[in-house]
Protein backbone atom coordinates (compact mmCIF):
# COMPACT_ATOMS: atom_id res chain seq x y z
CA UNK A 1 0.00 0.00 0.00
CA UNK A 2 0.97 3.66 -0.29
CA UNK A 3 -0.43 6.85 1.21
CA UNK A 4 -2.36 9.06 -1.18
CA UNK A 5 -3.16 12.71 -0.53
CA UNK A 6 -5.34 14.77 -2.83
CA UNK A 7 -3.30 17.36 -4.69
CA UNK A 8 -5.66 20.22 -3.76
CA UNK A 9 -5.88 19.22 -0.11
CA UNK A 10 -8.83 18.00 1.92
CA UNK A 11 -12.36 18.65 0.69
CA UNK A 12 -14.48 21.19 2.52
CA UNK A 13 -17.65 19.20 3.13
CA UNK A 14 -20.38 19.16 5.73
CA UNK A 15 -22.17 16.13 7.15
CA UNK A 16 -25.23 16.99 9.25
CA UNK A 17 -27.21 14.52 11.34
CA UNK A 18 -30.54 15.54 12.86
CA UNK A 19 -33.35 13.64 14.52
CA UNK A 20 -34.90 12.88 11.15
CA UNK A 21 -31.92 11.99 8.98
CA UNK A 22 -28.43 12.71 7.66
CA UNK A 23 -27.41 15.04 4.84
CA UNK A 24 -24.17 15.62 2.92
CA UNK A 25 -23.09 18.94 1.45
CA UNK A 26 -22.13 18.64 -1.33
CA UNK A 27 -23.87 15.33 -2.17
CA UNK A 28 -21.63 12.28 -1.91
CA UNK A 29 -21.74 11.58 -5.65
CA UNK A 30 -20.37 15.07 -6.33
CA UNK A 31 -17.62 14.48 -3.78
CA UNK A 32 -16.72 11.21 -5.54
CA UNK A 33 -16.62 12.89 -8.93
CA UNK A 34 -14.45 15.78 -7.76
CA UNK A 35 -12.11 13.41 -5.92
CA UNK A 36 -11.69 11.21 -8.99
CA UNK A 37 -10.99 14.23 -11.20
CA UNK A 38 -8.23 15.26 -8.80
CA UNK A 39 -6.78 11.75 -8.97
CA UNK A 40 -6.78 11.81 -12.78
CA UNK A 41 -5.11 15.24 -12.76
CA UNK A 42 -2.38 14.28 -10.29
CA UNK A 43 0.82 15.77 -11.77
CA UNK A 44 2.72 12.52 -11.19
CA UNK A 45 0.87 10.86 -14.04
CA UNK A 46 -1.58 13.38 -15.60
CA UNK A 47 0.46 13.86 -18.78
CA UNK A 48 0.56 10.06 -19.25
CA UNK A 49 -3.22 9.63 -19.11
CA UNK A 50 -4.42 9.84 -22.72
CA UNK A 51 -7.08 7.12 -22.79
CA UNK A 52 -9.64 6.58 -20.03
CA UNK A 53 -12.26 3.85 -19.75
CA UNK A 54 -15.19 4.35 -17.40
CA UNK A 55 -17.07 1.16 -16.54
CA UNK A 56 -20.65 1.56 -15.37
CA UNK A 57 -21.03 4.98 -16.97
CA UNK A 58 -24.87 4.83 -16.70
CA UNK A 59 -26.25 8.39 -17.23
CA UNK A 60 -22.72 9.68 -18.04
CA UNK A 61 -22.71 12.30 -15.32
CA UNK A 62 -19.02 11.85 -14.48
CA UNK A 63 -18.13 12.21 -18.16
CA UNK A 64 -19.22 15.86 -18.10
CA UNK A 65 -16.33 16.64 -15.75
CA UNK A 66 -13.79 14.23 -17.22
CA UNK A 67 -14.13 15.59 -20.76
CA UNK A 68 -12.76 18.93 -19.59
CA UNK A 69 -9.32 17.47 -18.86
CA UNK A 70 -7.33 18.72 -21.84
CA UNK A 71 -4.68 15.99 -21.73
CA UNK A 72 -7.20 13.16 -22.22
CA UNK A 73 -7.66 12.29 -25.89
CA UNK A 74 -9.80 9.14 -25.79
CA UNK A 75 -12.72 8.31 -23.50
CA UNK A 76 -14.54 4.98 -23.61
CA UNK A 77 -17.86 4.86 -21.72
CA UNK A 78 -18.89 1.26 -21.03
CA UNK A 79 -22.08 -0.13 -19.54
CA UNK A 80 -24.01 -3.39 -19.82
CA UNK A 81 -27.40 -1.66 -20.15
CA UNK A 82 -27.85 -0.91 -23.87
CA UNK A 83 -31.29 0.82 -23.58
CA UNK A 84 -29.86 3.16 -20.93
CA UNK A 85 -26.85 3.93 -23.12
CA UNK A 86 -29.01 4.73 -26.13
CA UNK A 87 -31.30 6.91 -24.02
CA UNK A 88 -28.34 9.01 -22.86
CA UNK A 89 -26.19 8.76 -25.99
CA UNK A 90 -26.55 12.45 -26.91
CA UNK A 91 -25.00 13.45 -23.58
CA UNK A 92 -21.55 13.06 -25.15
CA UNK A 93 -22.24 15.54 -27.97
CA UNK A 94 -20.10 18.71 -27.95
CA UNK A 95 -21.80 21.82 -26.61
CA UNK A 96 -21.94 25.14 -28.43
CA UNK A 97 -19.15 26.33 -26.13
CA UNK A 98 -16.91 23.53 -27.43
CA UNK A 99 -17.09 25.08 -30.89
CA UNK A 100 -16.39 28.56 -29.57
CA UNK A 101 -13.47 27.57 -27.37
CA UNK A 102 -11.67 24.68 -29.01
CA UNK A 103 -9.64 22.12 -27.12
CA UNK A 104 -5.88 22.17 -27.59
CA UNK A 105 -5.83 18.42 -28.28
CA UNK A 106 -8.19 15.96 -30.01
CA UNK A 107 -10.85 14.07 -28.07
CA UNK A 108 -12.73 11.01 -29.30
CA UNK A 109 -15.56 9.69 -27.14
CA UNK A 110 -17.18 6.30 -27.65
CA UNK A 111 -20.16 4.74 -25.91
CA UNK A 112 -19.79 0.96 -25.76
CA UNK A 113 -22.19 -1.72 -24.61
CA UNK A 114 -20.35 -4.50 -22.84
CA UNK A 115 -19.41 -6.12 -19.56
CA UNK A 116 -16.62 -5.05 -17.23
CA UNK A 117 -15.67 -8.73 -17.08
CA UNK A 118 -15.04 -9.04 -20.83
CA UNK A 119 -11.82 -8.05 -22.56
CA UNK A 120 -12.32 -6.36 -25.93
CA UNK A 121 -10.21 -4.65 -28.59
CA UNK A 122 -11.57 -1.25 -27.55
CA UNK A 123 -9.88 -1.63 -24.15
CA UNK A 124 -6.33 -1.98 -25.43
CA UNK A 125 -3.79 0.75 -24.57
CA UNK A 126 -5.94 2.15 -21.78
CA UNK A 127 -4.11 4.49 -19.40
CA UNK A 128 -6.75 4.88 -16.68
CA UNK A 129 -9.83 2.95 -15.54
CA UNK A 130 -12.67 4.45 -13.50
CA UNK A 131 -15.42 2.33 -11.93
CA UNK A 132 -17.50 4.33 -9.45
CA UNK A 133 -20.13 2.45 -7.42
CA UNK A 134 -20.06 -0.46 -9.87
CA UNK A 135 -18.65 -3.61 -8.31
CA UNK A 136 -21.45 -3.94 -5.74
CA UNK A 137 -23.92 -4.34 -8.63
CA UNK A 138 -22.31 -7.46 -10.14
CA UNK A 139 -22.60 -11.13 -9.19
CA UNK A 140 -19.65 -13.14 -7.93
CA UNK A 141 -18.86 -14.71 -11.31
CA UNK A 142 -18.44 -11.26 -12.89
CA UNK A 143 -16.64 -9.82 -9.86
CA UNK A 144 -14.02 -12.57 -10.00
CA UNK A 145 -13.18 -11.69 -13.62
CA UNK A 146 -12.79 -7.93 -13.15
CA UNK A 147 -9.18 -8.01 -11.87
CA UNK A 148 -8.07 -10.23 -14.76
CA UNK A 149 -9.66 -7.92 -17.33
CA UNK A 150 -8.47 -4.65 -15.77
CA UNK A 151 -5.03 -5.56 -14.41
CA UNK A 152 -4.21 -8.54 -16.62
CA UNK A 153 -5.54 -7.50 -20.03
CA UNK A 154 -5.76 -3.69 -19.89
CA UNK A 155 -2.70 -3.07 -17.64
CA UNK A 156 -3.52 0.64 -17.12
CA UNK A 157 -1.35 3.10 -15.25
CA UNK A 158 -4.18 4.13 -12.91
CA UNK A 159 -7.37 2.50 -11.63
CA UNK A 160 -10.06 4.01 -9.38
CA UNK A 161 -12.74 1.83 -7.75
CA UNK A 162 -15.39 3.07 -5.34
CA UNK A 163 -18.01 1.07 -3.45
CA UNK A 164 -20.34 1.63 -0.46
CA UNK A 165 -18.87 1.17 3.00
CA UNK A 166 -21.24 -1.09 4.95
CA UNK A 167 -19.66 0.02 8.24
CA UNK A 168 -21.56 3.28 7.69
CA UNK A 169 -24.93 1.50 7.55
CA UNK A 170 -25.20 1.62 11.33
CA UNK A 171 -25.86 5.35 10.95
CA UNK A 172 -28.43 4.95 8.17
CA UNK A 173 -30.40 2.37 10.18
CA UNK A 174 -30.87 4.91 12.95
CA UNK A 175 -33.43 6.58 10.67
CA UNK A 176 -34.64 3.97 8.18
CA UNK A 177 -34.21 0.21 7.87
CA UNK A 178 -32.16 -1.17 5.01
CA UNK A 179 -33.99 -2.61 2.00
CA UNK A 180 -35.34 -6.19 2.07
CA UNK A 181 -32.09 -7.42 0.47
CA UNK A 182 -30.21 -6.02 3.47
CA UNK A 183 -28.48 -3.27 1.49
CA UNK A 184 -28.86 0.42 0.60
CA UNK A 185 -29.97 -0.24 -2.99
CA UNK A 186 -32.23 -2.93 -4.39
CA UNK A 187 -29.69 -3.86 -7.09
CA UNK A 188 -26.73 -4.28 -4.75
CA UNK A 189 -25.39 -7.84 -4.62
CA UNK A 190 -23.15 -7.07 -1.63
CA UNK A 191 -21.85 -4.19 0.48
CA UNK A 192 -18.36 -4.55 1.92
CA UNK A 193 -16.91 -3.40 5.19
CA UNK A 194 -13.64 -1.52 5.00
CA UNK A 195 -11.73 -4.68 5.93
CA UNK A 196 -13.47 -6.69 3.20
CA UNK A 197 -12.68 -4.03 0.59
CA UNK A 198 -9.08 -3.89 1.74
CA UNK A 199 -8.81 -7.68 1.50
CA UNK A 200 -10.10 -7.55 -2.09
CA UNK A 201 -7.49 -4.93 -2.97
CA UNK A 202 -4.71 -6.90 -1.29
CA UNK A 203 -5.68 -9.94 -3.35
CA UNK A 204 -5.35 -7.87 -6.54
CA UNK A 205 -1.85 -6.55 -5.82
CA UNK A 206 -0.75 -10.01 -4.70
CA UNK A 207 -1.76 -11.42 -8.08
CA UNK A 208 -0.61 -8.32 -9.99
CA UNK A 209 2.48 -7.06 -8.12
CA UNK A 210 3.10 -4.29 -10.65
CA UNK A 211 0.50 -2.27 -8.73
CA UNK A 212 0.24 -0.54 -5.39
CA UNK A 213 -2.99 0.75 -3.88
CA UNK A 214 -4.21 3.36 -1.43
CA UNK A 215 -7.55 3.58 0.36
CA UNK A 216 -9.56 6.74 0.96
CA UNK A 217 -13.21 7.73 0.85
CA UNK A 218 -15.90 10.35 0.44
CA UNK A 219 -18.80 11.32 2.67
CA UNK A 220 -17.50 12.03 6.15
CA UNK A 221 -19.19 10.56 9.22
CA UNK A 222 -21.02 12.92 11.60
CA UNK A 223 -19.42 14.07 14.82
CA UNK A 224 -18.89 11.30 17.40
CA UNK A 225 -19.26 8.60 14.70
CA UNK A 226 -15.79 8.85 13.16
CA UNK A 227 -15.12 5.16 13.73
CA UNK A 228 -17.46 4.09 10.90
CA UNK A 229 -15.36 5.73 8.17
CA UNK A 230 -16.69 7.25 4.94
CA UNK A 231 -20.02 6.57 3.23
CA UNK A 232 -18.19 5.61 0.01
CA UNK A 233 -14.78 3.94 0.10
CA UNK A 234 -12.29 4.45 -2.72
CA UNK A 235 -9.32 2.37 -3.84
CA UNK A 236 -6.63 3.98 -5.99
CA UNK A 237 -4.37 1.53 -7.84
CA UNK A 238 -1.22 2.96 -9.42
CA UNK A 239 1.23 1.07 -11.59
CA UNK A 240 4.65 1.20 -9.97
CA UNK A 241 6.42 2.83 -12.90
CA UNK A 242 4.18 5.89 -12.36
CA UNK A 243 5.52 6.07 -8.81
CA UNK A 244 9.11 5.93 -10.08
CA UNK A 245 9.42 2.32 -8.96
CA UNK A 246 10.59 -0.68 -10.93
CA UNK A 247 7.93 -3.04 -12.28
CA UNK A 248 7.93 -6.51 -10.76
CA UNK A 249 7.01 -8.12 -14.09
CA UNK A 250 7.35 -6.89 -17.68
CA UNK A 251 4.13 -5.64 -19.26
CA UNK A 252 2.44 -7.95 -21.75
CA UNK A 253 2.81 -6.20 -25.10
CA UNK A 254 -0.12 -7.92 -26.84
CA UNK A 255 -2.44 -9.41 -24.20
CA UNK A 256 -4.85 -11.99 -25.56
CA UNK A 257 -8.61 -11.55 -25.45
CA UNK A 258 -10.32 -14.22 -23.38
CA UNK A 259 -12.08 -16.91 -25.38
CA UNK A 260 -15.29 -16.42 -23.38
CA UNK A 261 -15.27 -12.64 -23.76
CA UNK A 262 -18.11 -11.02 -25.67
CA UNK A 263 -17.08 -8.22 -28.09
CA UNK A 264 -18.29 -4.74 -27.23
CA UNK A 265 -20.98 -3.03 -29.30
CA UNK A 266 -20.39 0.55 -30.44
CA UNK A 267 -23.41 2.72 -29.64
CA UNK A 268 -22.07 6.16 -30.56
CA UNK A 269 -18.77 7.83 -31.40
CA UNK A 270 -18.07 11.58 -31.34
CA UNK A 271 -15.01 13.66 -32.18
CA UNK A 272 -14.64 17.04 -30.47
CA UNK A 273 -13.40 20.14 -32.30
CA UNK A 274 -9.87 21.15 -31.44
CA UNK A 275 -7.33 23.73 -32.51
CA UNK A 276 -3.63 23.17 -33.15
CA UNK A 277 -1.58 26.38 -32.98
CA UNK A 278 0.91 26.11 -35.85
CA UNK A 279 2.53 29.50 -35.25
CA UNK A 280 6.19 29.74 -34.31
CA UNK A 281 7.13 31.10 -30.89
CA UNK A 282 8.20 34.39 -32.47
CA UNK A 283 4.88 34.71 -34.28
CA UNK A 284 3.01 34.17 -31.01
CA UNK A 285 5.14 36.78 -29.26
CA UNK A 286 4.67 39.28 -32.11
CA UNK A 287 0.91 39.00 -31.82
CA UNK A 288 1.17 39.79 -28.11
CA UNK A 289 3.55 42.70 -28.81
CA UNK A 290 0.99 44.25 -31.15
CA UNK A 291 -1.80 43.81 -28.62
CA UNK A 292 0.20 45.41 -25.81
CA UNK A 293 1.27 48.37 -27.96
CA UNK A 294 -2.34 48.97 -28.95
CA UNK A 295 -3.40 48.89 -25.29
CA UNK A 296 -0.64 51.34 -24.37
CA UNK A 297 -1.62 53.67 -27.22
CA UNK A 298 -5.29 53.65 -26.24
CA UNK A 299 -4.48 54.42 -22.63
CA UNK A 300 -2.24 57.29 -23.77
CA UNK A 301 -5.00 58.71 -26.01
CA UNK A 302 -7.49 58.42 -23.15
CA UNK A 303 -5.08 60.27 -20.85
CA UNK A 304 -4.61 63.02 -23.46
CA UNK A 305 -8.36 63.47 -23.81
CA UNK A 306 -8.57 63.98 -20.07
CA UNK A 307 -5.83 66.64 -20.26
CA UNK A 308 -6.86 68.24 -23.59
CA UNK A 309 -3.39 67.67 -25.05
CA UNK A 310 -2.42 65.53 -28.02
CA UNK A 311 0.80 64.00 -29.39
CA UNK A 312 1.61 62.36 -32.71
CA UNK A 313 3.81 59.68 -31.18
CA UNK A 314 3.83 57.63 -28.02
CA UNK A 315 6.79 56.12 -26.20
CA UNK A 316 6.28 52.76 -24.53
CA UNK A 317 9.12 51.70 -22.21
CA UNK A 318 10.76 48.43 -23.23
CA UNK A 319 10.72 47.26 -19.60
CA UNK A 320 6.98 47.79 -19.42
CA UNK A 321 6.45 45.86 -22.65
CA UNK A 322 8.60 42.95 -21.46
CA UNK A 323 6.72 42.75 -18.17
CA UNK A 324 3.49 42.38 -20.10
CA UNK A 325 4.99 39.62 -22.24
CA UNK A 326 6.16 37.38 -19.42
CA UNK A 327 3.28 34.96 -19.99
CA UNK A 328 4.58 34.13 -23.50
CA UNK A 329 8.23 33.85 -22.49
CA UNK A 330 9.53 36.88 -24.42
CA UNK A 331 13.14 37.94 -23.89
CA UNK A 332 14.84 41.27 -24.65
CA UNK A 333 16.81 39.66 -27.47
CA UNK A 334 13.69 38.27 -29.18
CA UNK A 335 11.83 41.54 -28.67
CA UNK A 336 14.67 43.55 -30.22
CA UNK A 337 14.65 41.23 -33.25
CA UNK A 338 10.90 41.60 -33.70
CA UNK A 339 10.96 45.37 -33.41
CA UNK A 340 13.79 45.56 -35.98
CA UNK A 341 12.11 43.11 -38.39
CA UNK A 342 8.91 45.15 -38.29
CA UNK A 343 10.64 48.53 -38.69
CA UNK A 344 9.65 49.94 -35.32
CA UNK A 345 11.91 52.64 -33.84
CA UNK A 346 13.45 52.40 -30.39
CA UNK A 347 14.65 55.56 -28.62
CA UNK A 348 15.75 55.96 -25.02
CA UNK A 349 14.77 52.35 -24.28
CA UNK A 350 11.24 53.04 -25.53
CA UNK A 351 9.27 51.76 -28.52
CA UNK A 352 8.04 54.63 -30.68
CA UNK A 353 4.36 54.16 -31.53
CA UNK A 354 3.22 56.60 -34.20
CA UNK A 355 -0.30 57.95 -34.28
CA UNK A 356 -2.25 57.72 -37.54
CA UNK A 357 -5.80 58.23 -38.75
CA UNK A 358 -5.50 54.95 -40.59
CA UNK A 359 -5.09 51.65 -38.79
CA UNK A 360 -1.59 50.25 -39.17
CA UNK A 361 -0.84 46.71 -40.27
CA UNK A 362 -0.32 45.64 -36.67
CA UNK A 363 -3.39 47.24 -35.11
CA UNK A 364 -6.19 45.14 -33.70
CA UNK A 365 -4.52 41.73 -34.19
CA UNK A 366 -6.67 38.73 -33.48
CA UNK A 367 -6.00 35.03 -33.42
CA UNK A 368 -9.21 34.27 -35.29
CA UNK A 369 -7.28 34.06 -38.55
CA UNK A 370 -5.47 31.07 -37.11
CA UNK A 371 -8.62 29.29 -35.95
CA UNK A 372 -10.63 26.85 -38.02
CA UNK A 373 -14.13 28.17 -38.57
CA UNK A 374 -16.21 25.23 -37.42
CA UNK A 375 -19.91 25.64 -36.80
CA UNK A 376 -21.88 23.29 -34.56
CA UNK A 377 -24.41 21.07 -36.34
CA UNK A 378 -27.74 22.88 -36.73
CA UNK A 379 -29.84 19.95 -35.49
CA UNK A 380 -28.49 20.20 -31.93
CA UNK A 381 -30.71 22.07 -29.52
CA UNK A 382 -28.14 23.22 -26.99
CA UNK A 383 -29.38 26.71 -26.13
CA UNK A 384 -29.31 25.97 -22.43
CA UNK A 385 -26.34 23.58 -22.70
CA UNK A 386 -27.77 21.11 -20.23
CA UNK A 387 -25.15 18.57 -19.24
CA UNK A 388 -27.26 15.65 -18.09
CA UNK A 389 -26.67 16.29 -14.38
CA UNK A 390 -28.78 14.06 -12.22
CA UNK A 391 -29.95 15.34 -8.83
CA UNK A 392 -31.06 11.95 -7.58
CA UNK A 393 -29.66 10.73 -4.29
CA UNK A 394 -26.78 8.29 -4.16
CA UNK A 395 -27.37 4.60 -4.45
Q: What is the tally of beta strands? A: 13
Put simply, the count of helices is 11
Order of helices and strands: EEHEHEHHEEHHEHHEEEHEHHEE
Q: Taking all residues together, what is the mean pLDDT?
A: 89
Reported by name, the CATH topology of the largest domain is Rossmann fold
Description:
With 395 residues, the protein is of the alpha/beta class. The protein folds into 2 domains: 14-271, Rossmann fold, CATH 3.40.50; 281-366. Helix content is 26%, strand content 18%. The protein contains 11 helices and 13 strands. The chain has helices at residues 28-40, 63-66, 82-87, 96-100, 140-143, 146-154, 169-172, 194-207, 281-307, 318-324, 332-341, and strands at 14-17, 22-25, 51-55, 74-79, 108-113, 128-132, 158-164, 211-218, 232-239, 265-271, 313-317, 346-347, 350-354. Residues 357-395 have low confidence and may be disordered.
List keywords for this structure.
395 residues; disordered C terminus; 2 domains; 13 strands; eight-stranded mixed sheet; 26% helix; Rossmann fold
Topology:
Blueprint: E1 14-17, E2 22-25, H1 28-40, E3 51-55, H2 63-66, E4 74-79, H3 82-87, H4 96-100, E5 108-113, E6 128-132, H5 140-143, H6 146-154, E7 158-164, H7 169-172, H8 194-207, E8 211-218, E9 232-239, E10 265-271, H9 281-307, E11 313-317, H10 318-324, H11 332-341, E12 346-347, E13 350-354
Parallel strand pairs: 3-4, 3-6, 4-5, 6-7
Antiparallel strand pairs: 1-2, 5-10, 7-9, 8-9, 11-13, 12-13
Amino acid sequence: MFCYKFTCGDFQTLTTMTETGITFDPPVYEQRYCGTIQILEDPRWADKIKKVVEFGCAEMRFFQLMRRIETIENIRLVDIDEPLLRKNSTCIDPLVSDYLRHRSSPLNVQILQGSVADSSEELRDTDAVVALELIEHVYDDVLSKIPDNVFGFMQPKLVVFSTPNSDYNVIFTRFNPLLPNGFRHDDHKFEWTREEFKAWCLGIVEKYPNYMFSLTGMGNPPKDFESVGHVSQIAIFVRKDCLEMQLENPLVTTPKIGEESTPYKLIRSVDYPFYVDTRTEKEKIWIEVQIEMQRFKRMAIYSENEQDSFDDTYKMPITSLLNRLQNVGATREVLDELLKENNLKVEDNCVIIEDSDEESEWSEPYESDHLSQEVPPSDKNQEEEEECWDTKSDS
